[in-house]
Amino acid sequence: MARVVVHADKAAAAQAVAVVIRDLVVAKAKAGQTAVLGLATGSTPLPLYAELIRLHREEGLSFRNVVTFNLDEYEGLSGDHDQSYRYFMEQNLFRSLDIRPENTHVPAGTATDHVRTCADYEASIQAAGGIDLQVLGIGRTGHIGFNEPPSARDSRTRRVHLDEVTRRDNSVFFGDLARVPHGALTMGVGTIMEARQIELLAFGSSKAEIVRRAYCEKPNADCPATWLQLHPACTFHLDPLSDSEL
Ligand code: GLP
């Protein structure tokens, strides 16, 4: 069963998760090892990324021994497109840290051979030793990464078709629904479930219903986040609004 922690607000949640990440990065560095982080996009992790930048700038936390793998990328968008997730990560996190650019991975949205690109992504995660800690948000369809319903427990990194609810939700960033891609490349549920530790963040009343489903429904492919109940070390970090239907 996933653990639930209700924080006073999203800033407090971000701070708590940043401390978990800091402790992991410091412990790995002490042991002469690399910390492998799985990262998410969307508005939810922004306060967490701001806090990681603060820890780097004000407390000297180094990301030189950190390797990152992002969950997903829009199909057809290159890294310099201002709505691509590569661009989002550069702007909101990577450029403000001392992380080595070659240690940051985001699926290649412009790849034409999806099957090969996705298999290579899985292979690089394995080669890095697997993901130590995966940060997740949750979409209103119950998606994690871009694993839209239905997504099987053992699904792997692949090309997916985006749900219309997701396209509409994300159209605020694109300015126009017509500009939102119809497809994406995403780590699979099975890929995510192999992370040794998962920290899911969900804030605000718009997430209350899907948080309830994710936590209370029997694990099923039509609400992919329900699979997280089967993970041995998964925590849902909520604020009082997203917790309101639990
Ligand atoms: C996007 C991402 C997800 C994210 C979700 C929620 O579509 N692919 O990884 O968790 O939407 O976004 P937000 O945090 O903006 O609510």
Q: Can you describe this structure in just a few lines?
A:
Helices cover 33% and strands 17% of the residues.
Protein architecture, described:
This protein is α/β, with parallel strands linked by helices and 246 residues long. It is built from seven helices and ten strands. It has one domain: Rossmann fold, CATH 3.40.50.1360. The protein has helices spanning 10-30, 46-59, 85-92, 114-127, 164-174, 189-193, 208-216, and strands spanning 3-6, 35-39, 66-70, 72-74, 104-105, 133-136, 158-161, 183-186, 197-202, 234-238. The strands form two sheets. The protein has a seven-stranded parallel sheet with strand order 1-10-9-6-2-3-5, with helices on one face. It has a three-stranded antiparallel sheet with strand order 4-8-7. Helix 1 (10-30) crosses helix 2. The chain is globular and about 45 Å long. The structure holds 2-amino-2-deoxy-6-O-phosphono-alpha-D-glucopyranose. 2-amino-2-deoxy-6-O-phosphono-alpha-D-glucopyranose is lined by residues 40-44, 71-72, 137-139, 145-146, 166, 170. Residues 40-44, 71-72, 137-139, 145-146, 166, 170 line the site of 2-amino-2-deoxy-6-O-phosphono-alpha-D-glucopyranose (GLP).
